[in-house]
Amino acid sequence: MKAITTTLAFFALLILISCGKGKEVSVDEVIENNDKKELQALKDKLYHQQRDLSLELEKVDAALAAFEDKSRYTLIEAQNVQKKDFRHFIKVQGNVTTDENLLIYPEFSGVLEKIYVREGDRVNKGQLLATINDGGAQNQLAEMKAQRDLAKTRFERQERLWNQNIGSEIQFLEAQTTYEQLNNSVKQMQSQLNKSEIRAPFNGVVDEVIIDQGQVVSPSQNAIFRIVNLQEMYVQANVPETYVGSINQGSRAIVQLRALGVELDTQINRVSSHIEDSNRNFRVRLNLPDSIPNLKPNLIATLKINDYTNEEVVVIPENILQETAAGEFYVYVLKDIKDNTATATYNQVVPGRNYRGEIEILEGLSADDRIVTEGARTLKRGEKVSISTTEK
Q: Dihedral of CA 132/137/138/139: which sign?
């Protein structure tokens, strides 16, 4: 309507110029005169008159707008576009584990003579846990020590004589060899007897006592204890090789231990240096604090790992983004906003990644653009709308 009114007014102006009081000539006559200065003067005059009329027409249109039936406008909701940091996360499942979760096997055959700890006891590295009957090996060791001591005395005596050039070299060497052989035998026997004592390999908790006192045990066959260190636990998970370039040591991660109702905002502490052939995954590790109560090995953990970040980018709700048959993405941006009415204009955009109902817009929107969030599906380009609410 406004365009038609403006066009009619312009033609009326031309008629007025050509049909004046005789003091002015028509446009055709000025053109026929072929005078540059006269043509330029006429152009400037027409331009100023058109501008004045346009201003007047705008006032009239504004006054007429008050009589328009705004109830027929499409009711929409809108919000201002803002920039913020966009972060994308992937979700994988892992397990709580520890490097110090060990089944302890005996290294000596015999009867399990004495157990000194119970399940749940906290033990220190080197603490005696149990002893195995040595079957008389201790007596054999005592005899061997006595023989070694006698051989040592003979060797030292023969050495003194040899230093005084008394006796033969062969007597000295035989005494030396006998002593060294017996000394080595004592060391070996002592080493074997030490294996009859089962000691804690690290600080931890006796999680399980597997065999009862009095049973016969053998090396590599009967596990006696399970010792667990609950102070240095971590989560380990497998990540598909697709993310090998986007997840590194120091990447942000959120750990959820649903069974304990615990959620931690932490980071990746270690990334494996190879990819498994069997599943095309690589391992990541996240250390856990010692302060988490009831934390146990093999507890299931859910990891959300940050694999992509774009700082200070336009982010909008994903559900308002629309796509044409040609594959173009667009939203409606409000223009000419006044008294809760506006014009919905088609605005093509270039989207990026999406996460949890939000999507980043790489091109097509600027901060503080006001976009339609509800009611956009039925809109047409350039349609007048009535704004119900505006979210800031």
A: positive
Structural domain range at position 7: 2-65
**Strand order across the beta sheet in which 204-209 lies:** 101-104, 225-228, 204-209, 122-123
Structure tokens, 153: 């005395």
Q: Which of 207, 232, 227, 233 is nearest to 96 (CA)?
A: 233
> Does one domain contain both 177 and 288?
no
Alpha-carbon span 320 to 78, nearest angstrom: 11
pLDDT for res 62:
64
Per-residue CA distances from 44 to 2, 25, 41 (Å):
24, 15, 5
Q: How many Å is the Cα radius of gyration of the chain? A: 46
Q: Which residue has the tokens 């988490």?
A: 292
- CA-CA-CA-CA dihedral for 307, 319, 331, 72, to nearest 10: -160
Which of 271, 292, 310 corresponds to the end of one domain?
Answer: 310
pTM: 0.62
pLDDT confidence of residue 362? 95
pLDDT in tens, 354-384: 999 999 999 999 988 999 999 988 899 999 9
On average, the pLDDT of the chain sits at: 86
Tally of structural domains, the chain: 5
Confidence of residue 43 (pLDDT cuts 50, 70, 90): confident
Fill in the amino acid letter for 45: K
Q: What is the amino acid identity at position 262?
A: V
With cut-offs at 50, 70 and 90, classify the pLDDT of residue 136: confident
Question: Do 299 and 218 share a structural domain?
Answer: no
Q: Which residue, of 291, 310, 329, is where some domain finishes?
A: 310
Name the nearest CA neighbour of 304 among 361, 258, 362, 272. Answer: 258
